[in-house]
Amino acid sequence: MNPKRESDESKLSGPAADAGRHDLWQIRRMPIDALAQGSAAPAAKAPPSGVINCAAYAGGKRVATVEIDDLGIVNAPPDEFVWLGLYEPSEELLQQVQRALELHDLAIEDAHTAHQRPKLEQYQDSLFVVLRTVHRAAGENAPLEFGETHIFVGRNYLVTVRHGSLRSHAGLRTRCESTPALLAKGPGFVLYAVMDFIVDQYFPVVEQLEESFEELEEQIFTECSTRETTRSIYSLKRDLVAVKRTIMPLVEVCNRLMKFDLDLIPHEIHPYFRDVHDHVVRLNEMIDGLRELLGTALEANSSLISEQHTVQTKRLAAWAAIIAVPTMVAGVYGMNFESMPELHWELGYPVVLGSMVIACVALFAGFKRSGWL
């Protein structure tokens, strides 16, 4: 337990404890409220490294900027909550947040080490959600870049921890604050907004993969297939498998969030998670369809390469047969025997040469007609 929290709560005892905590929460909000009324307020100190934003919301509106040191004394009314955003925080900062919000040790360990698969876990009075983000850097043949977003959801708080994600949540927070009626639904709606924000990032990536496949498909059937084409197909298929691994578990996560066994998710939020579920199912269908097409394209490319090899083999065999005729005739008359027909015939040499030319031309025409040349 945070010593500061203990000292603050030790002053609140008896029947007035809850009212005292509420008053203390109001006191911590007073600088922002005073600014709203045009009064002077002390300058806020810079947030510690890793803290992107930490704000309190009441009735769907932002009412205060909360310091990390004050999280331990926050006991907001049911219609208020705190939204804390962290980016690659240190272990000390995570432990400070853990002590303040009484988060589970295993969840904090996962949030610190990262490299988790998408999942949802319930710890008594809190939820822990892991989401994977994906981004393709600008440039041709740029690799996919994956990140993670870990979310802690409680009755009056929501904490997001980002690792490696290049997309900031600043735009998401602004969008949520622009719809106070929905933000008033509490941390459950913010969880939906974060999930919807991350899932929507997959669509441009999958569409880029589809465009890459169309280029490969055109290359396969209009140009000469090579091993480089096979390598590109394999690379694209590997990217699809990586994206599939990050999206597939979200189906289970959304199914769980749509059920009624999670008290932290209000019933009126369930339709929003169904919308996310629909997006995830659509992404899975797009990826599955593209994987099947890639498998077919790989088989077609292999067949075309085999056909090219067969054509080249036929061409070499045809030329070998054509060359064999003059080679055989020249070999017969090059044996240097004294008693051979036509050796002393004056027309023997031109007749033999003419015969070889005629035979070669006839073979060439025959192979050309059959498609071997």
Write up what this structure looks like:
The chain is α+β, with helices and mostly antiparallel strands and 373 residues long. Among the domains are: 1-184, Beta Polymerase, domain 2, CATH 3.30.460; 311-370, Methane Monooxygenase Hydroxylase, Chain G, domain 1. 57% of the residues lie in helices and 14% in strands. Strands 2-1-3-7-6-5-4 form a 7-stranded mixed beta sheet. Helix 3 (91-101) runs antiparallel to helix 4. The longest helix is centred in the last third of the chain and has 63 residues, at 270-332.
Compact description:
The protein is an alpha+beta fold and 373 residues long. The chain has helices at residues 3-10, 17-36, 91-101, 105-113, 170-177, 180-183, 187-200, 202-222, 227-257, 270-332, 348-370; strands spanning 51-58, 61-65, 80-87, 119-123, 126-136, 144-153, 157-163. Among the domains are: 1-184, CorA soluble domain-like (Beta Polymerase, domain 2), CATH 3.30.460; 311-370, Magnesium transport protein CorA, transmembrane region (Methane Monooxygenase Hydroxylase, Chain G, domain 1), CATH 1.20.58.340.
The main β sheet shows up as: 7 strands, mixed
Strand fraction band? 5-15%
Looking at the structure, the CATH topology of the domain at 1-184 is Beta Polymerase, domain 2
Radius of gyration: 37 Å
Secondary-structure class: alpha+beta
